[in-house]
Write a structure and sequence with these properties.
Elements (H helix, E strand, L loop, with lengths): L1 E2 L4 H6 L7 E5 L3 H12 L12 E5 H6 L3 H7 L8 E7 L5 H7 L7 E7 L7 H8 L3 E5 L5 H13 L4 E2 L1 H10 L4 H15 L4 E2 L1 H8 L1 H16 L2 H13 L4 H23 L4 H6 L7 H10 L5 H20 L4 H20 L1
Parallel strand pairs: 1-6, 2-5, 2-6, 3-4, 4-5, 7-8
Helix pairs in contact: 4-5, 7-8, 7-9, 8-10, 11-12, 11-13, 11-15, 11-17, 13-16, 13-17, 16-17
């Protein structure tokens, strides 16, 4: 069974009865671990109970392919279900997982975490095509996912956050779920119960350099400034920004431009269109956006957003250099921006 992104939350809330094994795969290690935990608590109240919970790793399964199936069929002494937790890279677990899925799993549940796989991997295909197994992709959060996590964490202490602060947080976070949650929890601790968070709070405490680096990349591309784009990309790589984060941040920027361009079609000036954006754009970006609106048409901006989305999807599926794809996509947009300016 392949669990589609829109089905993941419902799956985690109520594991379908026929499913006896789940594979969590992808590039977001924090998200893999978080979702594994959510699944595990359905089957054990104490994950440290060695009498009902077995932990294995990829190296063990590689040297002893029968180990996973044997562990799953072992009697749980203190629970009705034997929970087997496995962590590994991917390929080294394939044969063991094949054997385990042919065993009697009626009184067991297997959770496999694979951190070096993509959607085309044989291990992923195995879990997707087995009736009593499921595969869940775990890739860096989309903007809506980060927004939902913000709401979830801040709501616990009734903390409010301004629109521009929310937009800044979404742009800054998302390369790893565990890291994202920790950073949001730090913000919640800063605000305190019934407190509030401003743009300045987010910028200072999340570190504005990452946000500015991505903004510089998107602005340089939209301006058609190749030299500035190269410098901004080099800065992002030196700060260890993930390619997906750069592409997603650039998407947000070009979506803002598209939204403003459509507002101009309705008779607004460039400045009015920028100021009408929701969530509001920080004042430091407003002049650049207004200038770029004089050269980019709505159709060209829609095409740019689509190119960035396609590049993000390519990066997520793996198999090629993510930094090369990211840089090539942005350079292509930059050359178009330069052509529009004449």
């Amino acid at each position: 069974m392949k669990v589609a992104p829109r089905q993941i939350q419902s799956f985690l809330s109520a594991i379908p009865t026929p499913i006896r094994a789940t594979l969590l795969h992808g590039s977001d290690v924090g998200l893999i671990a978080e979702r594994a935990q959510k699944i595990a608590v359905h089957f054990s109240d104490d994950l440290d109970d060695v009498f009902s919970v077995t932990r294995l790793d990829g190296e063990t399964l590689s040297s002893d392919p029968a180990a996973l199936g044997d562990a799953a069929e072992a009697l749980a002494m203190t629970a009705t279900c034997r929970l087997v937790l496995v962590r590994g890279r991917g390929t080294e677990m394939l044969e063991s997982c094949k054997l385990a899925l042919t065993r009697n799993l009626e009184n067991a549940f297997i959770i496999v975490e694979a951190t070096e796989t993509n959607t085309r991997h044989a291990l992923v295909k195995l879990f997707e095509t087995t009736d009593h197994a499921a595969a869940i992709g775990c890739y860096p959060d989309e903007a809506r996912d980060i927004g939902a996590l913000l709401v979830e964490v801040l709501a616990k202490d009734n903390i409010s956050i301004s629109d521009d602060a929310r937009a800044a947080a979404i742009l800054r976070l998302g390369s790893d779920r565990a890291a994202t949650r920790r950073e949001i929890e730090k913000l919640a601790l800063l605000a305190g119960p019934d407190g509030s968070l401003s743009f300045e709070d987010v910028s200072i405490n999340l570190g504005d350099s990452g946000t500015l680096a991505i903004s510089d990349i998107a602005m340089a591309a939209a301006d058609g400034k190749v030299d500035a784009l190269e410098r901004a990309i080099d800065k992002a790589w030196s700060e260890q920004q993930a390619s997906v984060t750069v592409l997603r941040g650039s998407q947000i920027y070009f979506r803002q431009l598209l939204q403003a361009a459509r507002a101009m079609r309705n008779g607004n000036s460039a400045q009015q269109a920028v100021k009408s954006l929701r969530p509001p754009v920080h004042f430091r970006l407003q002049d650049s956006l207004a200038s770029q609106l004089r050269h980019w048409s709505p159709d060209a901006l829609m095409d740019a957003v689509n190119r960035l989305q396609d590049a993000e999807l390519t990066v997520k599926t793996g198999g090629t250099s993510d930094t090369a794809i990211c840089a090539q996509t942005l350079l292509g947009l930059c050359l178009r921006g330069r052509a529009f300016r004449g």
